[in-house]
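Q: Hi! First time doing this. I have a protein sequence and I read that you can turn it into a structure. Is that right? Here it is:
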Amino acid sequence: MILRIGTRGSKLAVTQSEWVKAKIEARHPHVRVELVRIKTTGDKILDSPLSKIGGKGLFVKEIEDALLDRRVDMAVHSMKDVPAQLPDDLFLAAFPEREDSGDALVSANGLDLEHLTPHSRVGTSSLRRAAQLLHLRPDLELVPLRGNVDTRLRKVEAGELHAVVLAAAGLKRLGLADRITQIISPDEILPAVGQGALGLEARQEDAETIRILDFLNHPATEIAVRAERAFLKKLEGGCQVPIAGLARLQGDRVRFRGMVAELDGSHIFKEETEGPSDRAEAVGIACAEKLLAAGADRVLQKIYGSATDAR
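A: Yes, that's right. Below is the predicted 3D structure, encoded as structure tokens:
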């Protein structure tokens, strides 16, 4: 049997897909896995911030189209790139065990976030990171940054930037953990929904592929990610708004922390909720509702209203 994985062509995406391929072939010797590299809109447009060109979905749409057209049998996604709403005929069949969910600072001089010198140039691709960085360190100069991990690190090496903030999981999966200056605590910068987790997407009617992928599912990761995605869906969140959410499983309970921020970091709304793990999605939704009631609804309306006016 041949199983075709749709993947982006970046080094990180291919590394993640190769890991899934090796696991499947080791568990199911009768299956030969092939990678099908697909260039997404997010890979093609590198000179604009994601928030300006459509945000979430830019790294998955072409791959989902290939799934629906049966050019591939499954997809490996970084969950932070996956929109809250999936196409009707597709679903997330498995969530392998999550890597580090946090953000990582890589600085040229080994200084952590607290000790970066005033007016340091810090690169980030994310409005979520930018808003929280500005809230903590309004003296920093934030520089919009696109491109793969190597490209971003080279800007630090070349002296163009004093530091960059990236997902810790990506650096670790690429064998670049030694480059990390600091893993930033979620108390300081709350991560993106799904950050550090992979999602294996398949067609709902493809029972054989679903059966093959079942062993890769990590229940604790699935519970946490489903809570986070329910939170995101309730807020109708995309890359145009600084939204963050992190669920942690503690025994049979889920503890959830969520955030919505003004774009300039001048005001940050944070809330926490907790509940039974078998109602994880409700816990995420409850956190979103608390944020909206606390005033985050005005931030969302202002940003989405501006985006609508711009269109």
